[in-house]
């Protein structure tokens, strides 16, 4: 995961015109390289409910700067690759930005569209729905009315914030965060 929150919202059809697009091992997403860094974007329209891709990587017992939590004490990070191109192609999920009203959610390592996603739109998820306590908290700038401000993991959500994302919370977090 990129520890940032700026979402790339490129107009449909404008992907290649507005910056470099790195190909990934996915028919749905690519990594857009723009002035604000690298962000995962849709390279074609993605209907709501689509399984966009599956998270793969090396398992760790503790969170790292870019890991995604996938179990009670289980975190995925990128694994080794021959070069930077292969690293991006295989572990493109690292460029999933956080958003407080995200376009995808994660369930059992499957990344699923929460709504219809346009070509060029940012592919984002709510870090607070997978992470219990993040290694690298940051201030969100998503601009959503529901923005939580500082993103630190589900452990730090207020009861009200938690209620809003309850339907997207990972199973292993349900018993851990306060009701
Ligand atoms: Zn936000």
Automatic annotation (TrEMBL):
Record GO terms (molecular function): transferase activity
Domain spans labelled Post-SET: 136-152
Keyword S-adenosyl-L-methionine found: yes
UniProt keywords, alphabetically: S-adenosyl-L-methionine, Transferase
Pfam hit, one: SET
InterPro entries assigned to the protein according to its UniProt record, in alphabetical order: Flavunoidine_N-MTase, Post-SET_dom, SET_dom, SET_dom_sf
The name this protein goes by in its record: SET domain-containing protein
């Amino acid at each position: 995961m990129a520890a940032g929150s700026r979402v790339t919202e490129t107009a449909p059809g404008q992907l290649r015109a507005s910056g470099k697009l790195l190909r990934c091992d996915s028919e749905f997403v690519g990594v857009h390289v723009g002035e604000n860094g690298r962000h995962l974007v849709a390279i074609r329209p993605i209907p709501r409910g689509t399984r966009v891709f599956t998270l793969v990587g090396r398992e760790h017992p503790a969170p790292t700067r870019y890991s995604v939590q996938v179990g009670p004490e289980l975190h995925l990070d990128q694994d080794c690759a021959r070069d930077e191109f292969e690293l991006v192609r295989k572990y493109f999920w690292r460029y999933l930005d956080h958003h407080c009203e995200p376009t995808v959610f994660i369930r059992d390592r499957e990344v699923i569209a929460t709504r219809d996603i346009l070509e060029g739109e940012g592919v984002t998820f709510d870090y607070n729905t997978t992470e219990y306590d993040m290694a690298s908290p940051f201030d969100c700038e998503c601009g959503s009315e529901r923005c939580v401000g500082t993103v630190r993991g589900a452990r730090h959500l207020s009861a009200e914030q938690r209620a809003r994302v309850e339907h997207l919370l990972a199973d292993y977090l349900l018993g851990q965060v306060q009701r």
